[in-house]
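Progress report, Aim 2. The chain analyzed during this reporting quarter is listed below.
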Amino acid sequence: MVPWRRIVNTRERFNAVMNFEQPDRNLLWEMGYWPDTLERWYQEGLERKENRLGAPGAGIRGEASPHDESSTTRFRERDAHLALAMDPGMMNLPVNSGPQPLFAQEVFEETDEYLVYQDEYGVKKRLRKSGASVPEFIGWQVENRRDFERIKEERFQPRLEERTPANWSELVKTYPNRNFPLSIGGYPFGFYGFLRYLMGEQRLLLNFYDDPRLVKDIMGFLADFWVELWDQALADVEVDCAHFWEDMAYRTGPLISPAMFREFMTPCYQKVTGFLKDKGVRVILVDSDGNLEQLIPLFLEAGLTGVWPIEVRAGNDLLEIRRRYPRLQIQGGIDKLQIARGREAIDRELESKVPFMLQQGGYIPHLDHSAHPEISWPDFRYYREQLKDLIEAQAGAGR
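Predicted structure tokens for the chain:
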């Protein structure tokens, strides 16, 4: 790696780490939290000050997750952030890259056990009220080409002035002096991921065979739409990275074959990642759960530069991924299940991964997904303290 150099703020640390340089230290970030986790922690000593829980089924974002302050459904975690003196988090450029206007958020049915509602992307969901869980998707906006043409005309016009907050011009003036990294894109925007939101996973998978032209047309439209919209935004603001969201794998591997990825997704990704790199964006991250063994080389071919959160339970081996892809930018990879098992398990998990990964560079350590309610506040606090010690020890060795 590049020799150690002094860093002024979190934005500079992020860019140095992602560029495989040796900053004064790594970042103190987490991915996110389930609301039930925080409710448990408040009973175990975490002081309740600033948190808002957001929409039903929505996790609360940690510092590593790009966050848009204008969002009314997803909020940034603040209480653990303050208690643990974490670094400023990744912010997302407030450009709506999806339907505009957003869909009305409606509740259709509510019982003691579940809630049926529509989110801002027009997806109808059923959410169990007990436990930390993701909602079940049960209804979508696009069933056929006619629906796609309608929604494209009504809600996908790439006019920046309609997709930014009223104070956009004032925000633009503040960004050059920011102390946090700034991203574009983010959840739920990806070529597989967002089509899940438009038509549902089962219909999407069937359409790869039954109506491949429709799938290609929607993905191609999204590529052109994002390039045209983001070109306007990047004329005003320099961002530090771009984020895509796919979640296109389970424990056994990707939900579509590598051949399908290359046929349907690679040309679209290459159009957008090529555009981003021409604009000076050198960090292009993709969020996908599941086993990434077959996906990582496909992501790299498509022009993406990094992956997260590296779910251990899905069979991902963080150290092996680093050995196979020495220049891949990585976030996450710390097994959340081990953090729930007490101090000895925490020590083993951190010592087996973090020193090596920090030394290799291009890595920001945090849990491999949102903190689960099985993790106690004392154990989480211990994990963060030990991780901070390892970060500071590596920084001291670098000097």
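The mean pLDDT is 94. The chain has two domains: 2-99+143-398, 104-140. These observations will guide the mutagenesis work planned for the next reporting period.
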